[in-house]
Amino acid sequence: MSRTYVGMPAFPRAAARAVDDAVLRANLRRATHTIRDRRAAAVAELADWAQLRTAAAAIKDRTLRHLDHYLLRLEENVTRAGGTVHWAADADEANRIVTRLVRDTGEREVVKVKSMTTQETGLNAALEEAGIRAYETDLAELVVQLGDDLPSHLLVPAIHRNRAEIRELFRDRMGAWGRPAPEGLTDRPAELAEAARLHLREKFLRAKVAVSGANFMVAETGTLVVVESEGNGRMCLTLPETLISVVGIEKTVPAWRDLEVFLQLLPRSSTAERMNPYTTMWTGTTDGDGPSAFHLVLLDNGRSDALADVTGRQTLRCIRCSACLNVCPVYERAGGHAYGSPYPGPIGAVLTPQLRGTASPLEQSLPFASSLCGACYEVCPVAIDIPEVLLHLRERVVEGGEATVRGVRTVVRPARRRALEGAAARAAGLVLDHPAALRRAQRLLYRTRGLHPRRLPGPGRAWSAARDLPPVPEESFRDWWARTRGDGAGRGGTA
């Protein structure tokens, strides 16, 4: 059975285990620093990067404001071009649709283009339960699949593996999935890539059904776009007889001219390339060219709920470039699996709670999986203010109350620790609202400073374990002012 993220622990517990793994931390540090340095150099080549970023945010915001209109236009144009559009309210419905479509072909295996959306829905596990085997064809996704593992990065799903580990996986597991690894395989990248190429080629030539996602959908023409670096996507999108694409509704752009902006931003932000080596575009079906049957499954799965959130909807601008992961100090140490979702890092910390709701401990913990340093916002090519959304979601977790999840109004109860934080804030508010009480509390604090512990007890223990408590001065500012100025300001209670 394919592994899923279901039932994973909250971020603090999962991150604690990851931080203790020295090999994982070294793999992450080496990979993320390399990617972000190359990205910075690629971005610096464009004098109008800031303007492109602003334009992309504006295009996305306009599309999201009128998403209903553009989705209907997209459906109309895909249908006119010979494709079939299916609407899926949630992951289960999307998986049922894809499973039925594959069964209707009579086939029992599919090849897959790398797709975050099908990771989100858990499609591979659903197909396996139906007796259908899905083969990942992206090199990193192949590594993850052979290792019965889970992706840990948007762009490089096997970033947590080093070359020696990949060699062992290929040598030990590749034969169970098809053509075995060559004898004498080393951990040289060229040899590993060649082993994967030989293993996958027989699947490309045999497969009758392919499953993909899409980076963009153009409402104006019904065109779908996939960008990639290896060519496996091109093989899956052109050779099989049936193509099924599962795409989130937010991937829509209004017109062809909008692609100019995103096709400059995405490759530089993700792979640090001026242009993706393979950019595949298709519109419906064409006799004698490519798949003879095309199905588009439009996935909501919480996106409409996020769209209804005025502050949080900017998260739906995301083009899955992974730039935010590569600069995040928390991701670099904790890794992607700690986020308990196909969407790790800063974008996952805001996207997952919006798609799933904040009713469980995992989703409640994710908005706090950040130092709020702001590096993610600085590198985001579509200007998502991730720190702003994190604070917005933290407020939702602390305050609780009503929220919309899958179109249903539910009550989100604050976590126990968040409730204690709220109680502490209310107590501080009572003191700060009464100057006389504040003055007495300050004097009590500095007169007992010799008795203060170095670490807080109870719920504050975890906070003070990583921080020094500030030293208490010998007197309060009010008393110092009254003593040095002698104008009675310390006694009046209004200074």
From TrEMBL:
Q: Where is the Lactate utilization protein B C-terminal domain?
A: 393-483
Could you tell me which Pfam families the record lists for this protein? Fer4_8 (PF13183), LUD_dom (PF02589), LutB_C (PF11870)
**Keyword annotations of the record:** 4Fe-4S, Electron transport, Iron, Iron-sulfur, Metal-binding, Repeat, Transport
**Entry GO MF terms:** 4 iron, 4 sulfur cluster binding; metal ion binding
Q: Where is the LUD domain?
A: 73-285
Q: Which PROSITE patterns match?
A: 4FE4S_FER_1
Q: What are the recorded Gene Ontology BP terms? A: lactate metabolic process
- Coiled-coil zones: none
Give all residue intervals belonging to the 4Fe-4S ferredoxin-type domain: 316-384
Q: Which InterPro entries match?
A: 4Fe4S_Fe-S-bd, 4Fe4S_Fe_S_CS, FTHF_cligase-like_sf, Helical_ferredxn, LUD_dom, LutB/LldF, LutB_C, NagB/RpiA_transferase-like
User: What PANTHER family does the record tag this protein with?
Assistant: LACTATE UTILIZATION PROTEIN B
Name under which the protein is recorded: Iron-sulfur cluster-binding protein
In the record, what lineage is assigned to the organism producing the protein? Answer: Bacteria, Bacillati, Actinomycetota, Actinomycetes, Kitasatosporales
